[in-house]
Amino acid sequence: MASVTIPFSYLENYAQTVHDLDAINQSLLADALAATDLNDKRAVASVMRAVCQTSNEQAQELATAFYRGLSLMQTGKDMTKRVKSGWDETATDVAVSAILRDTEGDPEGMASQLSQRLSFEINRASKRGVYRAGQADGRQVRYARVPVGAETCAWCIMTAGLGFWYMTEESASHSHGGCDCVIVSEIVERPKTGEYRDVRIEGYDSAAYREMYQRANALRANGDLPQGMLDHIAGMHDLRAMQGRPYRDDTNGTLYVMRQMYGLK
After folding, report:
1. Would you call 226 helix, strand, or coil by DSSP?
2. Helix/strand/coil for 3
3. Residue 128's closest CA among 75, 72, 166?
4. Phi, psi angle pair for 176, to nearest 5°
5. pLDDT by residue (tens digit) across 221-241?
6. Which of 103, 130, 104 is nearest to 116 (CA)?
7. DSSP assignment letter at 62
């Protein structure tokens, strides 16, 4: 079986370019808001919409270039095409409207929450963009979530344990505040040798991440935890019941145990 190893530094460099893009657009947003009457919600929303649209398009360009590099490393072929960003204007407008409503009379709080929303949009676009570039490629592509930063949340550790498993835009583009993961594509095609390609990522061990989740899940399932943690998990069940949201599984309880065991976010 042919083997390809993707350098971890390639992922780190991509993550850094996304951080740099965020910093540039944060500065643009701050300048635009400083020149805007923050009491004029329509004007603020217009500023935010413009910055989010542009930054989503820029993130897609970065993601397409990143995917192109992955494709060349794996197949020696560049089949990337120009791809639209997939920016959801309605989702941005709804989120911004809620922020403006909740921070009325608090300009500092408004600016802070708008800044967080912009970071979220860029982060998500950088992940969704890799998926969209892969879909435009025309070949069969699978995706893995790879932690890159110094800190990773329990949910991302759990999903990183799945390896090259993601095959939908929703799963590949999932993001949250401060998410340090990079979505990496695996192009599934039979090379000329007649063997499938074994794609690996330097420093990425999906089995180790999976074991972290499984250990925490076993402790939760067996109830082999301090009473305080058991009470907390029971409280999570009760809260969901009060909110009318049936607790169909214990994934959240296991993620809570992971946070306590490994010091995760």
Report:
1. coil
2. strand
3. 166
4. -155, 170
5. 888 889 999 888 888 776 666
6. 103
7. H
